[in-house]
From TrEMBL:
Species whose genome carries this gene: Streptomyces mobaraensis (strain ATCC 29032 / DSM 40847 / JCM 4168 / NBRC 13819 / NCIMB 11159 / IPCR 16-22)
Positions of the UniProt region annotated as Disordered: 1-40
GO annotation, cellular component aspect: cytoplasm
Family the entry assigns: Belongs to the folylpolyglutamate synthase family.
Annotated EC: 6.3.2.12, 6.3.2.17
GO biological process: folic acid biosynthetic process
PROSITE patterns, alphabetized: FOLYLPOLYGLU_SYNT_2
Pathway: Cofactor biosynthesis; tetrahydrofolylpolyglutamate biosynthesis; Cofactor biosynthesis; tetrahydrofolate biosynthesis; 7,8-dihydrofolate from 2-amino-4-hydroxy-6-hydroxymethyl-7,8-dihydropteridine diphosphate and 4-aminobenzoate: step 2/2
Name of the protein in question: Dihydrofolate synthase/folylpolyglutamate synthase
Entry GO MF terms: ATP binding; dihydrofolate synthase activity; metal ion binding; tetrahydrofolylpolyglutamate synthase activity
């Protein structure tokens, strides 16, 4: 049996300021002991031993803390390590054969409930969270599967709007483990990390049982492991250039791959798209006789204004208008995500096809007011304000730059940036150049992170040498950026934006939560 070798070299996180005089030594010790571990797992474990233990678990943001019970913690670490030993999410095989065989031996759990299936380039997770909030507000039991996670695997599988518990996560893995092993033994390659986690999600949803699953693709669509569901509603968030080495070099080519989630007779909800992407998606809809709802045509954002802690929206759904909807997220892109989410839920309830009415306005307002989306223009510190955003491609970076300017109005904004090496890093830097007064370049804790010297060279080309500072360690980069922001004085209104990768955001969150 073939297996991908695992040898992930990475730095991990520690905070010498919260760790006392020996903080630097503890940081080095963590790095030394974790170099053979999966980078995602290492971030989790380092955080649990340093910052989490002192700051306490975050509250109300959908990011679970590590288990308090040492036996549960030990069992969870064992499962995380077993999952991390499989093919990672950047190792892809364009085939659904393994996941289909796993579903067969598990008894097809993905067909035990209807699904809303979500693809696109940007906005998938936020849209999934909004859809989940709306469905839950209408008293449906929900399961949500999203990726990647910000800090822990548990975030990826949610039941009734909350991350799966560590106990249930372990139990679900152990329940399906014999069947995973059975498929592994029959295939040339073992099931990947993402395939096993997808199987766990579908099994957990069936066991709950849920009334509806909200499922985000991992990458692409046609060959994504999630594409064994029959999405009664397919959602496509905005498509732009990302993963071009795997999905295509134009939005139209990428849309061909993502269009694979649109099933026969389904309803497809389309966010605003580039022309060539829209053409590919509409062609697929015609081929499978799907009903189409298009942003800007059948639904959309009627009005929006900045409000304290978010924005106030008027949305036009498939059944009519929804005025004065408060959304506690920042940016025009989140308003558009809200319109897409609303249309998807309306379509799920048959509005626009079987019913010509709106959903209950008060319920819709309550649902949107409850939405959180960790790592998406999330404020984690005040005075100076530190904001986290997981933008990792040029389109996401442009949206974040526009939103942070509109929502916060900083007099001076300092960027902390660490990216993955396989991204359009120049495009990301160019998107942020107009809004960053200075930029501190660094690295995150994964082996995919861009070499800090290479990132610095690109940053100098885009920003000029006088605006670029280099700090190889993220904790030092955060300290440097906060110091730069504080130079304007307590009441000057300077801020820090940490961005470039969901991994960077996850690392920074571990360092900064609890220090407000």
């Amino acid at each position: 049996m073939s297996e991908r070798p695992q040898n992930d070299d990475h730095d991990d996180l520690g905070d010498k300021r919260s760790g006392g005089p020996d903080g630097a030594d503890r940081f080095d010790e963590i790095v030394d002991t974790e170099t053979t571990r999966d980078p995602d797992l290492a971030v989790i474990e380092a955080g649990s031993r340093t910052l989490r233990a002192q700051a306490g678990p975050p509250q109300g943001d959908g990011i679970p803390a590590r288990p308090v019970d040492p036996e549960v913690e030990r069992a969870l670490r064992e499962v995380e390590a077993e999952l991390a030993g499989r093919w990672g999410e950047t190792k892809l095989d364009p085939s659904l054969e393994r996941i289909r065989k796993l579903m067969d031996v598990l008894g097809q759990p993905q067909h035990a409930y209807p699904s809303i299936h979500i693809t696109g380039t940007n906005g998938k997770t936020s849209t999934a969270r909004m859809i989940e909030a709306l469905l839950s507000a209408f008293d449906l039991r929900t399961g949500r599967y999203t990726s990647p996670h910000v800090q822990t695997y548990l975030e990826r599988i949610s039941l009734d709007g909350a991350p799966i518990s560590a106990e249930r996560f372990v139990e679900t893995y152990r329940d399906i483990e014999p069947y995973v092993r059975m498929v592994d033994e029959r295939e040339e390659f073992r099931l990947s990390f993402f395939e096993v986690l997808t199987g766990m999600a579908f099994a957990a949803f069936a066991d709950a049982p849920v009334d509806v699953a909200v499922v985000e693709v991992g990458m692409g669509g046609t060959w994504d492991a999630t594409n064994v569901v029959d999405g009664t509603v397919a959602v496509v968030t905005p498509i732009s250039l990302d993963h071009t080495d795997r999905l295509g070099s134009t939005p139209g080519e990428i849309a061909l791959e993502k269009a694979g989630i649109i099933k026969q007779d389904a309803t497809v909800v389309l966010a605003q798209q580039p022309v060539d992407a829209a053409q590919a998606l509409l062609k697929r809809a015609v081929e499978v006789d799907a009903t189409v709802a298009r942003e800007g045509m059948e639904f959309g954002v009627v009005a929006r204004e900045v409000a304290v802690g978010g924005q106030l929206l008027t949305l036009r759904g498939l059944g009519g208008e929804y005025p004065e909807v408060f959304l506690p997220l920042y940016g025009a892109h989140q308003a558009h995500n809200a319109a897409v989410a609303l249309a998807a839920v309306e379509a799920f309830f048959g509005i626009g096809s079987q019913h010509a009415r709106t959903l209950d306005l008060d319920v819709v307002r309550r649902a949107f007011a409850s939405v959180t989306s960790p790592g998406r223009l999330e404020v984690v510190r005040r005075s100076p304000t530190v904001v986290l955003d997981a933008a990792h491609n040029p389109a996401g970076a442009r949206a974040a730059a526009e939103a942070v300017t509109e929502a916060f109005g900083f007099s001076r904004l300092v960027g902390v940036v660490a990216t993955s090496a396989d991204k359009d890093v120049r495009g990301v830097l160019e998107a942020f150049e107009p809004v960053f007064a200075e930029i501190v370049v660094t690295r995150n804790s994964t082996d995919r992170t861009m070499d800090v010297d290479e990132l610095a060279a690109l940053a100098v080309e885009v920003f000029g040498e006088e605006r670029v500072q280099v700090e190889p360690r993220l904790d030092d980069a955060l300290e440097a950026a906060i110091t730069l922001a504080e130079e304007e004085g307590e009441y000057a209104g300077a801020g820090v934006l940490v961005t470039g990768s969901v991994f960077t955001v996850g690392d920074a969150r571990l360092l900064l939560r609890g220090r407000d």
